[in-house]
Amino acid sequence: MQSDQSLSARLDALLWGRPLDALPRWQSRFVWLGRLVYALLRDLAQGNLSLHATSLVYTTLLSLVPLLAVSFSVLKGFGVHNQVEPLLLNALEPLGEPGVEIVTRIIGFVDNMQVGVLGSVGLATLIFTVVSLIQKVEQVFNDTWRVTAPRPFAQRASQYLSVLLIGPVLFFSTVGLSTSFSRYIDAQTLLAPESIGFLTEMAGQLGPFLMISLTFAFCYLFIPNTRVQWRSALIGALVAGLLWEVAGGMFSAFMTGSTRFMAIYSSLAILMLFMIWIHIGWSILLIGASIAFYHQHPEYLSTRASDLSLSNRLRERLTLTVAGRIASRYDTGKPAWNSRDLARTLGVPGANVQHILNLLERTGFLLRIAQPDPGEDPRYVPARAPETILIGDLLAATRHFGEDASGCREHRPDSEVERIERDIERAMTETLNGLTLRDLARSMAPAATAGQPGAVRP
Fold first, then answer.
1. What pTM was computed for the model?
2. Percentages (nearest 5) of helix, strand, coil residues in the chain
3. What pLDDT band is residue 454 in, cutting at 50, 70 and 90?
4. pLDDT at 235 over 80
5. 3-state secondary structure of 381
6. For the sheet containing 379-382, what is the strand order?
7. What is the pLDDT of residue 452?
8. Tell me, what DSSP letter sits at residue 390?
9. Where is pLDDT greater, at 51 or 303?
10. How far is CA 427 from the centre of its chain?
């Protein structure tokens, strides 16, 4: 037990002992990478990624045939429906012969499912099953990106319709181009001299990796209900693409020596292997999404915990810091703060900053500004003149927030406890002596306007 505590203390000192901006550049990159690996292992150990991947496996098995049926109906009108089977064979290639059998059965189910004769109830059930898969994927990605607000219903309806009607055409057309490129590379490898043939062979091997990486990047950019930076999405996608290639090779090696496994489970082995491979695929996709998230939001790597747990003292400090910086920007006429910029500047996870912003908005101290771009984070300004907002009122709102909902005020404290509370509030009022939010904003104006990090360090 003592050795475990010693190891944990050493890990804390190594990864979180000093802030990244106080380290040399080369050292800060290694420390950041160590924090990232720890965060991914922590998420896997806590079961969040595995739980999401498992739920997506179930939804995929339920929605796979209806999704392919809808895609097949759309693709048939464009004359590219013949690309469905090669794509499935390529996706299930690590399964070997069982993968070919699974593809054959799935295509058989799709061929037998005629959308035109399903009827209104059958067609509605088919569409509902497909939409549930898309909605589940969006929920998982939003959870990975700590997004609590879903897209508006009208926006979701239009985007889901676009995915169902336009997505299959673009996706399978891209796959067809990739296949043609691979065949062209193979032909050039046979005809080219040995030196050039090596380069073309390398290009042929990198082609599938780049295609799957670009597909992952597309998912990371457009599925979450938040603005994702293309650089973060690309980094997560490249790592996920590499994991996909490595996992495919390892799974193929496992299938080569799985005769005993096939003998034990007999006909169920194909279904089990199919489910395992789907689980691996979703896990890789979610790991890449987590990497993209942590790259874009390094403040979530500032502590060992996935979300920073604030004490009452730090919650009050964060409230004053956030309110003061917003008021300072308002006084100087500079662009208002949003939660993402505040979190990055203060070095605090965005969920904690958003909680404080929601607290101040619900208690009437801040006002949310609507942005012209629906995908842009809302910005905040003081709800009234900063000179009319007392610091004591801000602290009282922070300390009392949520009491009405929880019903704690219904229980009258003991007389002695109530006297101590009155003395504390009287002492705070006398100490603050009418200090307003404008006074606080002017005292912290240089850091608030320049965006210098380090105002809040738990």
1. 0.72
2. 80, 5, 20
3. very low
4. yes
5. strand
6. 337-338, 379-382, 366-369
7. 45
8. B
9. 51
10. 45
Give me 163's structure tokens. Answer: 């995915």
Per-residue pLDDT band for 251 (boundaries 50, 70, 90) equals confident
Q: Determine contact, residues 250/284, Cβ cutoff 8 Å.
A: no
d(CA 34, CA 42): 12
What is the tens place of the pLDDT at every residue in 310-337? Answer: 788 888 999 999 999 999 998 888 888 8
The answer to whether 76 touches 64, Cβ cutoff 8 Å, is: no
417 CB-side CA count, 13 A: 4
Can you list the domains of the chain with their CATH numbers? 46-296 (no CATH), 312-450 (1.10.10.10)
Q: How many Å apart are CA 324 and CA 307, to the nearest integer?
A: 23
- Chain-centroid distance, C-alpha 38: 17
Can you tell me the distance from the alpha carbon of 453 to that of 302, in angstroms, rounded to the nearest whole number? 13
Q: Are residues 233 and 220 in contact, defined by beta-carbon separation less than 8 angstroms?
A: yes
Alpha carbon separation from 87 to 8, 84, 126, 202, 257 (Å, rounded): 46, 5, 22, 22, 25
What's the Cα-to-Cα distance from 450 to each of 125, 130, 242, 417, 437, rounded to whole Å? 55, 48, 39, 44, 19
The total of other beta-carbon atoms located within 10 Å of residue 418's CB is: 11
Q: Is-contact 50 283, C-beta < 8 A?
A: yes
Q: Are 390 and 376 in contact (CB under 8 A)?
A: no
Q: Alpha-carbon torsion 195, 200, 201, 205, what sign?
A: positive
Distance CA 34, CA 18 (A): 13
Within 10 A of 313 (CB to CB), how many other CB atoms are there?
9
Please list the alpha-helical segments (H only) found in 145-229.
153-165, 167-191, 194-222
The token duo for 278 is 């789907």
